[in-house]
């Protein structure tokens, strides 16, 4: 899986310094981001929803489904972002029994308030993650701090956030802990061509109380098929510093999903 990430990063590096093959960009790049946000002020939500489904039969019988949403709201001073991600996999055996081998759900909400100084903002972030097979079944955090839109042009949008917060964790034995953390996050969207965009999301939640720390990296390429329908190839890497004794520190997920943009 590490080779997938390396290929994505090399592509991003190439397109950052090379001339793009197209100069006529898709709707996200036709106008600068501030103008695009002004056009969305009277809309309740805008963003995209993706769906993927896999069924295997024969020597291996399993089915898996993935649903993900990335929604935005823009106001004169506030910018809100809601993320939702869920994955379920069920394995079936020759005796017609079945069992769930993967069950994960993640939801986050972030609000940024523009303070009017060089794209700086004050943000509040909260998330909740359920992972039945991770060892730490429930995790939730609440963070606030400083945010900044480092780049904002027709080709690149880069958002940076850093701030302290609190974290709540429950392991598979039902034992709970609460502690302090420091969260650092970076979101980069790069318009590669008229129909393709590159996304890189990185977040680090470092525990300040000796609890589990989390690292998450998602790399993706989204290419328009027709109109508002696109195809997305992505790799998600998640790392926990203190998993249960019989669990690995990391999980990797490679996926190809359909994306509907609205």
Give a summary of the structure in a few sentences.
The protein is mainly beta and 262 residues long. Helices cover 10% and strands 64% of the residues.
Task: Identify the notable features of this structure and list them briefly.
262 residues; mainly beta; twelve-stranded antiparallel barrel; 12 strands; 10% helix; 64% strand; disordered N terminus
Question: How is the topology of this model organized?
Answer:
Elements: H1 2-17, H2 27-30, H3 33-39, E1 46-56, E2 61-74, E3 78-92, E4 98-114, E5 120-131, E6 136-152, E7 156-171, E8 176-191, E9 196-207, E10 214-226, E11 229-240, E12 250-261
Antiparallel strand pairs: 1-2, 1-12, 2-3, 3-4, 4-5, 5-6, 6-7, 7-8, 8-9, 9-10, 10-11, 11-12
Structure in words:
It is a single chain. The chain contains 3 helices and 12 strands, in the order αααββββββββββββ. The protein has helices at 2-17, 27-30, 33-39, and strands spanning 46-56, 61-74, 78-92, 98-114, 120-131, 136-152, 156-171, 176-191, 196-207, 214-226, 229-240, 250-261. Strand 9 and strand 10 form a beta hairpin. The model is unreliable at 1-29 (pLDDT under 50).
The number of helical elements comes to 3
Q: Please state the average pLDDT score.
A: 82
The percentage helix is 10-25%
Shape by Cα distribution: globular
Cα distance spanning the termini:
31 Å
- Rg result: 20 Å
Largest sheet: 12 strands, antiparallel, barrel
């Amino acid at each position: 899986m590490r080779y997938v990430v390396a290929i994505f990063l090399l592509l991003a590096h190439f397109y950052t310094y090379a001339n793009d093959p197209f100069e006529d960009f898709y709707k996200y790049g036709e106008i600068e981001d501030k103008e695009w946000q002004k056009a969305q002020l009277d809309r309740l939500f805008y963003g995209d929803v993706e769906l993927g489904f896999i069924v295997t039969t024969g020597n291996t019988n399993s089915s898996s489904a993935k649903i993900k949403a990335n929604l935005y709201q823009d106001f004169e001073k506030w910018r809100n972002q809601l993320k939702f991600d869920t994955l379920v996999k069920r394995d079936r055996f020759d005796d017609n029994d079945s069992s769930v081998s993967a069950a994960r759900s993640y939801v986050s909400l972030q609000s940024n308030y523009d303070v009017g100084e060089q794209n700086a903002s004050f943000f509040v972030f909260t998330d909740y993650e359920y992972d039945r097979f991770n060892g730490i079944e429930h995790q939730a955090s609440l963070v606030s701090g400083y945010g900044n839109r480092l780049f904002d042009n027709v080709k690149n949008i880069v958002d940076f956030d850093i701030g302290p917060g609190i974290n709540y964790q429950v392991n598979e034995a039902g034992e709970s802990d609460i502690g302090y953390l420091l969260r650092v996050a970076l979101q980069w969207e790069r318009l590669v061509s008229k129909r393709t965009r590159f996304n890189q999301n990185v977040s680090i939640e470092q525990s300040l109380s000796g609890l589990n720390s989390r690292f998450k990296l998602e790399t993706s390429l989204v290419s328009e098929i027709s109109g508002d329908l696109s195809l997305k190839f992505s790799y998600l890497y998640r790392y926990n510093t203190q998993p249960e004794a019989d669990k690995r520190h990391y999980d990797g997920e490679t996926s190809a999903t359909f994306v509907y943009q609205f």
